[in-house]
Queue: 4 jobs
Job 1
Amino acid sequence: MNFPSKILERAVEEISQLPGIGKRTALRMALHLLEVPKTRTDNLTKALTHLVHDIKHCKKCNNLSDTEVCTICANPYRNEKIVCVVEDVRDVMAIESTRQFNGKYHVLGGRISPMEGVSASDLCITPLLTRVKEQEIEEIIFALSATIEGDTTMFYLYKILNNTEIKFTTIARGIGVGDELEYTDELTLIRSLQNRVPYQQGLR
């Protein structure tokens, strides 16, 4: 691809680094930014700068937040005795969109995957152990993807936490094996949460 400008070429190169964006799509985006009023591009630049430099991880659940403690953890009307363990913030957003869950969350920040070089030490597990020790948690719901990596992560967490009085459940497998939670439709998510089963059944 021959560029008439090195500045344009660099912009296209950076935009094309985003997931799912090829060089041609990146070029269309770059040219579009040149056509719209500069204030819109400036606003986009400011928003991205704030995203990178100002967003925080909730110190309690590891969810993304504008403050030290996210709005879900800070909400006194949510049931803190039930904790839903998910892989990332997209799963929190997916479950929240159903408006059927009134507990709290813990975001692992991924899942154990030896093939991808991700081990338990790479995940946000220590804060979960701290919550179990310090709070009166009655139930932990494993809402992880129905994949080998998701099952491996659930089994690991269960093994290090099963010496407690906590009830462990997993969302019902209305979600197809191999499916990512974030792409599951809301009705399936609602039924999976409502029909969750004891986790031990998942070990058979």
Job 2
Amino acid sequence: MCLGVPGQITEIYDSAGTRMGKINFGGIVKEVCLEYVPGSRGR
């Protein structure tokens, strides 16, 4: 099952050749992989 939860990208960076980001989900910040999220941009 896939779940779509809205979040705000606060930071984008490269980790060992993988596009990563920090996402704020209503006060909870998680580190996520952005490799398969085309068009993802930070502020």
Job 3
Amino acid sequence: MNTKQYIIVRKDLKMKHGKMAAQVSHASLGAFLNFFTMDRKRDQGADLFSLNLSFLQNSPMDMWLHGIFTKVILKVDSELELLQLNERLREKGIKTALITDRGLTTFDKPTTTCLGAGPVSSEDIEGIIGHLKLY
């Protein structure tokens, strides 16, 4: 099984390299964290949170964590295209993280910049993103 994490970036925003690197990092981590469950309990009067990750042996997550953390960065032309991809991926059951910058530095308002998906089997996602070009 060929397992990868996919990050899809809006090229119409023409982000500087540093801004794009930060947004791609947010998308990668956000998509990964969607696989966790969070538990909350009280410990000595304070809230204690723990993250739990469960996955089956030989699942896409197992292959990715015990592989080389492959990531593929792809590009789209618009926010609409990004939102449509997010919807199609979610309908197929693929975990995604849609990233919206708060608009405090580069952008003057909140701006949806990129989308993280997976880790997921390449075969499960190819029909949705196969037409996209590498960034």
Job 4
Amino acid sequence: MKKGFTLAEILITLGIIGIVAALTIPTLKSVIQKNILKTQIKKSFSMYKQIYNELKYDYTIMAASDNQHSWGPYNNAILSRLKIVKQCQGNAIEKGCIPEEYASLQVSGGCPGFSPDALINRAGIYTLSDGSFIIPYYMTWLSLWMIDVNGLKGPNKPGYDIFSIWLSKSNGLDYGTGCFVKTDNDMLEEVINIKDIEKW
């Protein structure tokens, strides 16, 4: 007598496997995406921290009041240390310089320079060789920037791949979501060191 599985048993087993896969694959994809973002955030944070440390002793403006409007040379020095492959200004979504999700980005009242209208129509957008963006608030006003660590790729959400960074003598490197409205509890709000990223 030959032993084996009936067709019904095989179909039931495949059905169970399908249900388990349908339940676990989205979670698995989310975990993988978060780990990829962690790596990109670490790389970004380390790069800007290194640039900040290189420049903080060379520019006397860093010791001045943060309300000065003559930060152009310092901000240009930051850009000169980045591998910029593309620069864009105006009609940014149509030109493919920023993702469409930026049109609904919510910013805090203190950062109108990062509003959707400003980003799409007026801001200078610099795409780096690794695909990330850096966008100055204003080139001559402070050293406040918006960064998207993975560029056109999703999720295009503050605290996931979009951050603001502020490089100043008084605050050091302030890397977080201070310019953006919090929309999700599971987001990385502030990065002071690599350990903050690991805890996220």
